[in-house]
Amino acid sequence: MHSLKFLLPLSLLAQSASATIRFGCSQLVTQRFDPLVTPGEVAPHVHQIIGGNAFNLSMDPNEDYAETATCTTCRFKEDKSNYWTAVLYFKHSNGSYIRVPQKPNHLVGDTKGGHTVYYIAGYPPFQKVTAFAKGFRMITGNPMIRTKGDRDPNDVTSNAITFRCWTSDEWLGPSNLLAPGVGEYDSVGLPTKFCPSGIRSNIFFPTCWDGKNLDSPDHFSHMAYPTGPVDSRLGIIWHEGPCPATHPVKVPTILYEIAWDTAIFKDDWPTDGSQPLIMSMGDPTGFGQHGDYVFGWEGDSLQRAMDNCKDSFGTPENCPELTLLTDEEMNSCTQPALVPEKVEGEYISALPGCNPEQHGPEPATMVPNCGAPSTTIGAVPTQSYTAPPILPSANCVPGVVWTPNGILSPR
Ligand SMILES: *[C@@H]1O[C@H](CO)[C@@H](O)[C@H](O)[C@H]1NC(C)=O
Ligand SMILES: *[C@@H]1O[C@H](CO)[C@@H](O)[C@H](O)[C@H]1NC(C)=O
């Protein structure tokens, strides 16, 4: 007989001591900014950003953003980190695109857009983890790839990014009983059929740090996923494999859960079996899903939370180390979009930033000199914003090259 934990939803694990915090964050802004990949330049594709309002086109690792930010869209007042992800569009049969709204996840409150963030210190038993430090940042996933193998127990990375097809709205409905990345409702690419209650994107960041570098040129190699094998009934969230010797320091596992309200497009869903969803980088497969993180917790607040908040489900109210904000406080923290283009809320004729649909399986390529708004003088409204120095690159070619397999490297 299987151990009970194979069958239990995450919700029922509260009896075992394991530090997790799980919280909703609302949208700060949605626009083509990516201070890690294209600092100082408008990014090639649209992102939704959540977290502290010190988010900017460039973010200096020496700056203490926990001090600079005056509000955050996340549940805990101490957390001025920024978290960003690509956005999803629905393609109408007439060829126009509209952003798929992000809805609150289960049990996170009434957040406006945004997504859910977890910091996990290992599921039972509780593990001591080292919190990230000021200046830490990382990316996982690769927006240029258009094919991937299936989940492989011996390759932890292959289990890191998945999509849940929700068949019902209830928290404990049949499609929500297992951990993210586990079971028949999860796929490595975007679901290819209509999901009656929407889709959840699950992004697990690597949890092993080299112990030295707060960042790396590709924003990934200072981190590593733990070694396998992953139990396919438990997934990466329960995974206890050791860190590789090159990256020996266990940090909290960050998980993003993004709930897309694809169900509102039911009446316009294609009847010919085609898949009308496409990510902002022109990716209809979902294999290019990725997430970015810039640490911004006040002082030692994250370390204290990971040491002392022993609630396996990570309910914010059960973490007295941290200060709760109300939904209203989170929702009122916003930034104006500064790139002068329409990215959401109405049908648009093309994905912003020159992102033609690229179905793969070969990696996507950038469109050079595409003429989309960039940081050229006048493109960003000067009354509210002074653009940082312009880097000498064409509009749509970011200051990096994408490696076919890994993430990205500086040019
Ligand atoms: C972003 O950076 C610019 C240029 O350094 C600065 O003028 C602006 O105040 C910053 N915005 C925020 C929200 O910090
Ligand atoms: C496509 O349909 C949507 C929804 O009815 C509409 O808003 C949009 O303008 C249409 N686009 C074109 C090119 O007709």
TrEMBL record:
Residues 34-297 form the DUF1996 domain. InterPro entries: DUF1996. The keyword Signal applies. Residues 1-19 form the signal peptide. Keywords: Signal. This is DUF1996 domain-containing protein. It comes from Coprinellus micaceus (Glistening ink-cap mushroom).
